[in-house]
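[step 3/7] fold_predict: job queued, chain A
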Amino acid sequence: MRVQLRDYQLNVVDAVRNGYASGFRSILVVLPTGGGKTVVFCNITERTAMRGNRVMMLVHRQELLTQTSEHLERLGVEHGIIAPGHSMTGDVVQVASVQTLVKRIDRVPPPSLIIVDECHHANASSWRAVIDRWPQAFLLGVTATPCRLDGTGLGRGSGGYFDTMIEGPTVRQLIDDGHLAPPLIYAPPTDLDLSGVHIKMGDYVQSEVAQRIDKPKITGSAIEHYMRLCPGAPAIAFCASVQHAEHVAAEFNAYGIPASSIDGKLPDSVRKSRITGLANGQFKVLTSCNIISEGTDIPVVTAAILLRPTQSLGLYLQQVGRCLRTHPQKTHAIVLDHVGNCLRHGLPDDVRSWSLNARKKKSKADDESEVKFRRCANCFAVFGMSVTHCPQCGTKVSWKPKEREVKQVAGELKLLSGEDIEKMNAARHARQEQGRAMSLEALRAIAVKRGYRPEWAERVWDAKRRKIELKQSRWDAVSHSQMAMAI
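[step 4/7] structure written:
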């Protein structure tokens, strides 16, 4: 059965093809949660396999493996599965649990293309063992969050694998186009005190967080706000430990709200049954620790209940992304943030600048240097700085900027107005848009949109082409052409 790709998905597929033709061997694609990453890379897989090229698709969870396999079946793509309980096959397309593939790798023929789902994990040892095994293969990574908690970059220059990054539309653009549900964010104050909680590998130590957050008062607040703001809505509660998830589910059940918990130690069949139970209405709330933060597609989910504080922007965006998918039964998504994650990382639809380079370490002063949103003192809704009245309850919002110490430095200072900042952001966006254009047609479209003369696109493409030709000299031009044609 053919699957009709959206225009932006087709643009991503074309950009990947042009990227390989231009000399890149490893490409990272960024699409927000709900943007259709599986649709895109399965389409690329189908095109590649039709020409007899072997494709290895790497996933790291049973739910992702099942989801990918089911989509390939809808496309009519024959494939094998490398995972516990599955026998090896000779199909040119293989969907592999990365942990199992590492153990069976000596029995697998070399692929022409390796696709890495949730590729922000690609720097980890299991993924490296696979990617390093077949250095001649082309590489395609897909993720909604191209960042790592430890700050290491995903690009070759930062110790990663990717040569270039292709960005699809932003969360905001997908919302405006009707492909994602607009989020309503609530951040009720809690008694959560994280002072003294240690940070390990960039994030709070989960066992210590669980001790602070697994309290009847905090769980009671989460249930109270759920019943007041989205009663009966299918919801996922993201918890700090398996025990915490079980306690939260028990409390929801005690209030007459059908709930169940899910964790990695449960049999696959039980996990699948409980996820299906949330989708079909058997449960109203599913509580989880680290299982359904990534990739799990349950469009009916309307609310995300955040009960695990995290320093990880990627984890936060993956969690809130679970409720942003559109569904006939919902007009918007609701995020109940009881641990202040939105205050740490911003709103789900904020425009973010992604990079393949390592992240620069921020000082505490950097983190506190700018308030980007406000919280209503009446209903605890969170919204942008330009709003003067709460869009949810109408309460007038009063805000007093934090006083800061002014430091003197040598040189002449210029006071930047809001208009100056908008111009700077617009110029940065224009540079990024131009940099992502991978064809003359894309540059011509930019020229039309900006009102430039047609010659501008020709000049920019000519300069890009010369750079590409220099880069191509490092690679085998024949193999690149073959991969571009395969896609």
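[step 5/7] annotate
Residues 364-371, 402-415 have pLDDT under 50 and may be disordered.
The chain has two domains: 7-169, 175-360.
exit 0
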